[in-house]
Design brief:
heterodimer; A: 169 residues; Rossmann fold; 17% strand; globular; B: 197 residues; alpha/beta; two-stranded antiparallel ribbon
Chain lengths: 169, 197
């Protein structure tokens, strides 16, 4: 299966006018860190708890900026009230790129983080798109457009743990 | 100890054109403010998030002074926001924190270790370049100009009287005069901010 390259994801963020990346490192998206930190058009805002990502994004959006949130599914679930109050409650048009820890393509899931991820998004009525390889990258643009149109968070699930981005070259 | 409204009355004289996020002081601030389109009285979207919201707002508009009146309950719940604020170091952010020692809106139960917490020390340890602890109106009045006259981020712990609310939520007076989204839209219009396309 083709891989999801960091450059492809970064290109999607730039193409869609992201100004700030509010993030907490995780094993699915750590590949992006070096590229993001070297990209002058993006301002990185590191948080220590994923719930802060939603309130930070709400403030950035209120001030006219276009943040994207980069977190892991575990932290997303821990952030439920912040997602409710700051993300959904304040109609923040933000794409949340969520590392899909434990995701497999064959339906046998042994990680409860993965087991509950889509159920959690369903509970909050948040639409989501799965991105596993470069061929899926246009779904990131679809998510940006939907977030802007619907004025609410939209998720992109990054199903590439310890694959693709994380392969040493 | 200070009455929140009396403290805010003094602050108002020094506000200038700052955007004010009144936080838990919102019910008092809406009665005092004469620039409501520069106010974001959001109430409580989700506890613990005001500091991060203020950080985002300050980063988004670095030329605009942003003043937050946080609470100690919010800071305790979202303490991890302090290192992020210190690292990003927005020079336009002034972070006041109302400390009454209790969860006033749930009946006045004490916050953890209420008697011994030194929030200004916590903020200093997180990397805020300037921190203050003030427990009376006279000191607040004499220091507010200095506080607002320096680059942020500045953290100010304020000892205030508990003004406890214990009615069921649906029975409480509604102090908010507009919705959260309307408050944001009014501020954006006032400051000429265009939401991103």
């Amino acid at each position: 299966m083709a891989e999801l390259s960091p450059a492809t994801v970064l290109e999607q963020l730039k193409k869609n006018g992201a100004t700030h990346v509010v993030w907490l490192p995780d094993s699915e998206t750590n590949f992006l860190y070096v590229l993001m930190s070297e990209e002058p058009s993006l301002d990185l805002v590191p948080v220590s708890r994923e719930g802060h990502a939603f309130s930070t994004a709400a403030g950035l959006a209120a001030g006219g900026k276009k943040p994207v949130i980069l977190i892991q599914n575990t932290g997303m679930m821990e952030s439920g009230d912040s997602l409710r109050g700051w993300g959904l409650g304040m109609n923040v048009p933000v794409v949340m790129m969520v590392g899909y820890r434990g995701w497999t393509r064959h339906g046998v899931i042994n990680d409860t983080a993965a087991f509950y991820t889509e159920r959690f998004l369903h509970a909050f009525n948040i639409n989501y798109y799965l991105v596993e390889s470069d061929e899926d990258a246009d779904r990131i643009s679809i998510a940006f457009a939907e977030a802007q149109r619907e004025k609410r968070p939209v998720a992109v699930l990054v199903g590439d743990e310890y694959h693709g981005f994380n392969v040493s070259r | 100890m200070m009455k929140t409204a009396e403290m805010l009355e003094i602050f108002k004289r020094h506000r200038g054109d700052a955007v004010v996020i009144p936080g838990r002081g919102g019910r008092f601030w809406v009665e005092l403010s004469d620039q409501p389109d520069r106010d974001l009285p959001l109430g409580d979207p989700a506890m613990g998030g005001h500091a991060s919201f203020a950080l985002g707002l300050a980063l988004a508009m670095p030329e605009q002074r942003v003043v937050l009146f946080d609470s100690e309950g919010d800071v305790l719940m979202g303490m991890g926001a302090l290192p992020t604020i210190a690292e990003k170091a927005p020079a336009n952010l002034y972070h006041f924190m109302l400390d009454n020692g209790v969860y006033a809106t749930t009946g006045g139960q004490p916050v953890p270790n209420a008697e011994q917490m030194e929030y200004e020390v916590v903020a200093q340890g997180c990397g805020y370049p300037a921190t203050y602890a003030i427990d009376n109106l006279e000191d607040f009045a004499s220091q507010i100009e200095e506080i607002l006259g320096q680059p942020g981020p500045v953290f100010v712990a304020l000892k205030i009287d508990p003004e406890i609310i214990n009615e069921p939520i649906n029975a409480r007076p509604q102090w908010q005069r507009k919705t959260r989204n309307q408050a944001v839209a009014d501020m954006q219009a006032e400051l000429g901010i265009q939401p991103p396309a």
